[in-house]
Design goal:
With 140 residues, the chain is α+β, with helices and mostly antiparallel strands. The protein contains 3 helices and 6 strands, in the order E-E-E-H-E-E-H-H-E. The longest helix is centred in the middle third of the chain and has 23 residues. It is elongated, with a radius of gyration of 17 Å.
């Protein structure tokens, strides 16, 4: 896996990234750090990537368990250390899983497996952050 990050210059704090899979994204900082708030912060992308990693696992596990999942949303709320480096110290992941006749035990198992076995991002972040999760199931 690789990625190239380039400063966009012009006196700002915006950066572009090109991933090894050929996708591009932009990052920027807040105005008080010289940015223009034109894109997500790098730490926001880490949080978003963590949610994506875990949601990917949950959907895949539920599909393999023959569950009729139609939606999976994850809301992440994080706290960071007050001093540098401002690592994440607490992250709560709230999963809302929607589908027809979903079995609660299978949804709970999917989320647990993601956190304990499959999600690389939560495993890495768990080294500095207490990660908790909660689940809502919405029937169609």
């Amino acid at each position: 896996m690789d990625c190239r990050v380039s400063w966009l210059g012009n006196g700002g704090m915006a950066f572009s990234a090109e991933t090894g899979s050929g996708h591009q994204l932009k990052m920027d900082g807040p105005p008080d750090a010289g940015g223009q708030n034109s894109a997500p912060r790098p730490m926001e992308l880490i949080l978003a990537g963590t949610g994506g990693c875990s949601a990917f696992d949950v959907v895949l596990i539920l599909q393999r368990a023959k569950q009729a999942v139609s939606a999976c949303d994850v809301r992440l709320v994080a706290e960071r250390a007050e001093v540098e480096p401002k690592v994440f110290t607490k992250i709560n992941m709230h999963f809302t899983v929607k589908g027809k006749d979903l079995e609660r035990s299978k949804v709970e198992r999917a989320v647990k497996l993601s956190h304990e076995k499959y999600c690389s991002a939560t495993t890495m972040l768990a080294k500095t952050a207490e990660i908790t999760y909660s689940i809502d199931i919405v029937s169609e």
